[in-house]
């Protein structure tokens, strides 16, 4: 279900259940969590998350689940939330290449990934009105934060889906890419990040998270940013960057 390939300092995590549009069962969430653990233990410098087949992830795998036996708390609270937190806190740059259906849990996986490139024709939204359920996996936060309350409730009430191009135009994700170019462009971005100053990237990732989660004002963010820069000025990558700049050559960062 979950494949992990590590080479050249890059982890590629693949949702590989195309017959189910990569819908995730509780067991699959455990496999995905283990893949991130293994990638972290290997000391990778960047990570790419993607899905095989016609979709990135259509949400939760409801095979064998009925209203009578559904243990939503175990799935959402005990399994999904820890996974999303682990993904959000992964210490190096993370990217996702998203195509086809990106719904429910799939949307949550994208919400906690640093940079998301989506296919122009990807399908993104909240189909939960058709199930008598609420948008989950952090979708309310993602939509409200980036699209605003009215657009969020419009998507929830109508169950209409946005295209990847519309989602990017609305500020939901980073870039919209032609479907045939999506994986190549995302892999190129991942490779570039992997060769960069990963300590500086980690510091920026943490700072952006603080600004987002604690609603830091300008001056508080400036103070935190200054402290980050002071600490980075003592690292080998900082010295290499300056030396390479003065020598007019490409830097070689070690991370």
Automatic annotation (TrEMBL):
Gene3D superfamilies: 2-enoyl-CoA Hydratase, Chain A, domain 1, Lyase 2-enoyl-coa Hydratase, Chain A, domain 2. It comes from the Bacteria. Coiled coil: none annotated. CDD domains: crotonase-like. GO terms for molecular function: catalytic activity. InterPro entries: ClpP/crotonase-like_dom_sf, Enoyl-CoA_hydra/iso, Enoyl-CoA_hydra_C. Belongs to the enoyl-CoA hydratase/isomerase family. This is Enoyl-CoA hydratase/isomerase family protein. It comes from Arthrobacter zhangbolii. The lineage of its organism: Bacteria, Bacillati, Actinomycetota, Actinomycetes, Micrococcales.
């Amino acid at each position: 279900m979950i494949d992990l390939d590590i080479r050249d300092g890059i982890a590629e995590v693949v949702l590989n259940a195309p017959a189910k549009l990569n819908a995730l069962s509780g067991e699959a969430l455990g496999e995905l969590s283990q893949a991130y653990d293994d990638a972290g233990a290997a000391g990778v410098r960047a990570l790419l998350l993607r899905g095989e087949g016609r979709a990135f992830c259509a949400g939760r795998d409801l095979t064998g689940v009925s209203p009578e036996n559904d243990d939503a708390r175990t799935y959402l609270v005990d399994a999904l939330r820890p996974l999303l937190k682990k993904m959000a806190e992964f210490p190096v740059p993370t990217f996702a290449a998203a195509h086809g259906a990106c719904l429910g849990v799939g949307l949550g996986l994208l919400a906690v990934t640093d940079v998301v490139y989506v296919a122009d024709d990807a399908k993104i939204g909240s189909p939960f009105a058709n199930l008598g359920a609420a948008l989950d996996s952090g979708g309310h936060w993602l939509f409200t934060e980036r699209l605003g309350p009215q657009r969020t409730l419009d998507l929830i009430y109508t169950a209409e889906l946005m295209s990847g191009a519309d989602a990017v135009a609305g500020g939901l994700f980073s870039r919209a890419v032609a479907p045939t170019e999506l994986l190549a462009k995302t892999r190129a971005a991942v490779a570039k990040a992997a060769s960069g100053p990963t300590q500086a990237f980690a510091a920026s990732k943490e700072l952006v998270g603080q600004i987002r989660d604690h609603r830091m004002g300008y001056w508080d963010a400036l103070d935190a940013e200054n402290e980050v820069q002071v600490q980075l000025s003592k690292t080998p990558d900082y010295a290499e960057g300056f030396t390479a700049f003065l020598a007019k050559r490409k830097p070689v960062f070690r991370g």
